[in-house]
Write a structure and sequence with these properties.
By secondary structure, the chain is an all-alpha fold. The chain is built from five helices and no strands.
């Protein structure tokens, strides 16, 4: 049974490796995307697997217990908001690429969440001593994903094309 406590235990166990997993699955997703764009048949299946796994990684990262922010409920909320927003954005990108229903709505929600997280990371960086690197990485990750999300929306709407 997946309860809050069990998911937190899993996330805390995986926490030292999550950044490495994230980087590996981003690279694998990009390779799978290039395979899909090259009309290689297995590219779509690999893209679904890699982007779904990346989304799960972001979802789990929202449950990681960070000792330095545990006492501040607003910073705990930001960590979860940020992680789950990236998870939704990743699934939205996956849905757009594979032309699934409700893809644009998920992409809007995820991109908006990432943009709000960018603004909040400036606030949180000043409120928590010793967490500057965490919020710097969060800022860069959200900036990159927001950029991808906005480009995907513009491409889907036909405003830009390849």
């Amino acid at each position: 049974m997946f309860t809050y406590t069990n998911i937190t235990k899993i996330a805390n166990k995986l926490q030292p490796k999550l950044r490495s997993f994230e980087l590996v699955f981003i690279i694998l997703a990009l390779l799978a995307l290039s395979a899909k764009l090259s009309n290689i048949e297995i590219g779509t299946q690999l893209l679904v697997i890699f982007l779904s796994t990346l989304s799960i990684i972001y979802f789990l990262s929202g449950f990681i217990t960070i000792d330095k922010i545990k006492e501040n409920a607003l910073l705990v909320f930001f960590n979860r908001f940020n992680a789950w927003g990236l998870s939704i954005l990743t699934i939205g990108i996956l849905f757009i690429i594979n032309h699934y229903p409700s893809s644009l709505q998920m992409l809007y929600m995820g991109t908006l969440t990432s943009l709000v997280s960018i603004v909040f990371s400036f606030y949180a960086k000043n409120k928590s001593v010793g967490m500057e690197q965490f919020y710097r990485i969060s800022f860069i990750r959200n900036l990159a994903y927001s950029f991808v999300g906005i480009l995907t929306i513009l491409f889907f709407k036909g405003i830009i094309s390849l």
